[in-house]
Amino acid sequence: MKKLNHISVFLMVLIFISTFINPTQVSAEVQNDFENTSVNFLKTYFLTRDNVDANYISPKYENVNIENYINNRIDIESSVKKAAHIIKFDYKITATLINKENRDSLDYLTYGVRRDFTYEGIDSPTVVSDEVVVIGSKNIIVDVLFPNDPIEKELRGTSEKINLSKSQRLDSLDVDSINFRAKEYKERLLKSIEAAQVVEKDVYGIEGSTSLDPISSSKSLTWAKANYNKYSPLSSSSIVPYYDFSKISGSYDCTNFVSHALLAGGANLFNNGNPSTGWWYASLNSRSYSWPSVNYLFSFLTTTHSKGPVASSVQYKIFDERYEYPFSLGDIVQFGNTSAWGHSTIIKGFYVYNPASPYRYGTLVIGRTSPTQYNFNLKVEDSNYDNKRVLVVEGTY
After folding, report:
1. Which of 125-134, 156-165, 359-368 is the least confident region?
2. Which of 135, 146, 307, 339 could tie 270 with a disulfide, CB 3.0–4.6 Å?
3. Is residue 3 part of a domain?
4. Rounded Cα–Cα distance for residues 108 and 101 (Å)
């Protein structure tokens, strides 16, 4: 009788999996046991992390470190979503295998994991796609890497790029150290959510110059909405080619995408021949540092210059719309953690943060990191970064 019960549970799990993963996409990708194991793991991980389903079905792990690591990730991310009142409906996952290689008898499978869902209280759908690498063989998972997720480096205790060499793999790390770092980072994330609701507006940079021409947020967003999930985005100007910076190892496309959105809105280029102080892109050999870099773009926009877009920096916060809108559509939200600022996005909308306080609003963003990593209509609070700042776009010289 017990054996029959186990079989019944297993069949129910398989039915549950097929409900949420696009069967056409998965059937085209699944070719062996480990690919099947990986897809099922990704489905159950994201469903549990996003609090859509609380019954996490653990696969077979090579050792306790990987299981402990995944459980810590789920605890951090689900706790943050609960604290930020994030509830998701109509949830659908598509896992697409985009690269496969074998090293030392282990399969390294790189997936683009897209989630389509609707936030509670928001009519328009949200799309988020992330890149995940699953390592193992047959039905055993040895390690899992989320290359561009800030939790990754925090839990592994490194500021270096993670390449999953033997020394960086979870089986080489101490369980107690992972637990300590997970607890510390979770506390920081929860404090950042709390702080965003009480912090006062603090402005740095250039404000309100009458000599500035406006930048059209509607044109910026029209271009961004048309290109955020394209494998090869179209250029926002006939004189500036679109180069995907994620093609460069260790680089990402998010700030380049934001620069093109500013250009689409009417921002003027500033090609002064000095890559440290200008804002332009002509080719990989002729460009400013500020065009694709989070920190350099921040520095350029908030310091005095004679040509190009201008912005002021304000602390991100939940705001009361009865008194102020501290930022607007087309403004830029940048994300970071204790080690660095690492991601740029564009504001595309606002939402009621908590139905119990209908005047308090949070912010929705759109962005692109690579062809397989992008977001549309994402809540700022639905991120794994503990630092957020907003660049309020003032106009362009």
Report:
1. 156-165
2. 307
3. no
4. 5
Strand duo 60-61 + 140-145: pairing = parallel
> Would residue 6 count as lying in a domain?
no
- Give the mean model confidence (pLDDT) for residues 29-54: 81
Domain of 160 in residue numbering reads as 13-195
Q: 280 to each of 48, 73, 273, how far by Cα in Å?
A: 43, 39, 9
Single pTM value for the model? 0.82
Using the predicted structure, report yes or no on whether residue 196 has a pLDDT greater than 90: no
Question: Please, which pLDDT band fits residue 373 given cuts at 50, 70 and 90?
Answer: very high
Directed axis angle between helix 64-83 and helix 175-195, to 10°?
A: 10
Q: What is the mean pLDDT of residues 360-384?
A: 95
The total number of structural domains in the chain stands at: 2
Nearest Cα residue to 60 out of 46, 44, 48 = 44
The pLDDT, as a whole number, for residue 18 is 38
CA-closest candidate to residue 134, choices 230, 8, 241, 32: 32
The answer to whether residue 24 scores a pLDDT higher than 60 is no
Same domain, 226 and 180: no
C-alpha R_g of the chain? 22
Separation between Cα atoms, residue 385 and residue 49, nearest integer Å: 16
Pair 248, 385 in one domain: yes
In contact, 220 and 261? CB cutoff 8 Å? yes
